[in-house]
Amino acid sequence: MGIQQRRFAAAGNGEPELGHVIVLAGGLSYEREVSLRSGRRVADALRALDLDVEIRDVDAALLPALQASPPDAVFPVLHGAMGEDGAIRDVLDLLGIPYVGAEPHACRIAWDKPTAKSIVRAAGLATPDSVTLPKEVFHDLGAAALLDSVVRRLGLPLFVKPARGGSALGISAVHEPSELPTAMVGCFAYGDTALIERYVPGIEIAVSVIERNGTPVALPPVEIVPAGGLYDYTARYDAGDTEFVTPARIPEESARQAAEAALTAHRALGLRDLSRTDLIVDPTGQVHFLEVNVAPGMTETSLFPRALHAAALDLGPTLADLIRTRCFP
To answer: Is 302 a known active-site residue?
Structure first.
């Protein structure tokens, strides 16, 4: 049976039958291990539904395999460069293979945090004031004078992170001017451009969005309470290092604003199928946009599966529904 015939076969329960599904995980970014963990969980959840699922890495063998035996759909669970910058999705489009998630142009916009902040600000969302500094500017104009200007403009404390990237790699909180140079060096270890934001105190939350019957729906907000105060790589992926509260302990009006902010970001950035928006609720209840993720983590400690659980949605069937949407548009 050919690929198109498989896509339009019917299962016994009346739902379209899914054939071969490839979960893409791994890659060569700094977030490889997280991606592999996410990929295994997605594959296990789909296999529990008796789907034919294969996990593949992004390497020299991938393209020949896709061309020799095109799958019915691909579920990318790639974090970091290539996985979230749209490149792999461009390749899938070239091959005519359906995939879950945002299209390449939307990935490129969301992947670049300063660009995403500008777009959501234009759409009406509050987001912390910031400055973006490429490594070349940092060196060529003189680090000391430039960083003094940053502190005068944005004040303290500050938050420094790579302009592109995820899993909180290269992030630092800066409370004193003397800490800023070290934070910049740490940031540049993971990317050539730093985003320096004014620190907004408050409750950190994540609001995931999933499309149901073509309509984006915000899931319950997940509150993030890291033991060390900073939601860094260790706090994200080491079980027990962070407390997660779902739904978040925020005022009802803030929860409404947070849901609307996530939906606004999803739409304004042109995202598709699923996304996760990270937000801060300040002491006045105001919601501030931080960043958006087009390939949310799916590990045991990740926020997207927690939000699904809080919404009484099972991971496997929900992901299978997203795949069916791509296979049977």
So the answer is: yes
- Check the annotation: does 278 bind a ligand: yes
Q: Say if residue 247 is preceded by a cis peptide, omega within 30 of 0.
A: yes
Element (H, E) at 150: helix 143-154
Catalytic residue (choose from 29, 35, 130, 167): 167
- Architecture of domain 1-101+312-328 in this structure: 3-Layer(aba) Sandwich (3.40)
Summarised one tens digit per residue, pLDDT across range 204-249 is 999 999 999 889 999 999 999 987 655 544 545 455 568 899 999 9
Give the span between the Cα atoms of 319 and 322, in whole angstroms: 5
**pTM of the predicted protein model:** 0.89
Residue 57 neighbours by CB under 8 Å, 6+ apart: 24, 25, 26, 27
Q: What's the rounded Cα separation, in Å, for the pair 94 and 72?
A: 15
Active site residue 54: no
What is the pLDDT at residue 68?
95
Class assignment of domain 130-198?
Answer: alpha beta
Indicate where the chain has its CATH 3.30.470.20 domain(s): 200-294
Q: CATH 3.40.50.20: which residues of the chain? A: 1-101+312-328
The catalytically annotated residue of 31, 103, 204, 223 is 31
Residue ranges matching CATH 3.30.1490.20 in the chain: 130-198
Q: Is 293 annotated as contributing to ligand binding? A: yes
What torsion, rounded to 10 degrees, do the Cα atoms 85, 163, 322, 58 define? Answer: 40
Backbone Cα Rg of the chain: 20
CATH architecture of 200-294: 2-Layer Sandwich (3.30)
> Is 291 labeled as ligand-binding?
yes
Give tens-digit pLDDT for 278-317. Answer: 999 999 999 999 999 999 999 988 999 999 999 999 999 9
Active site annotation includes 35: no
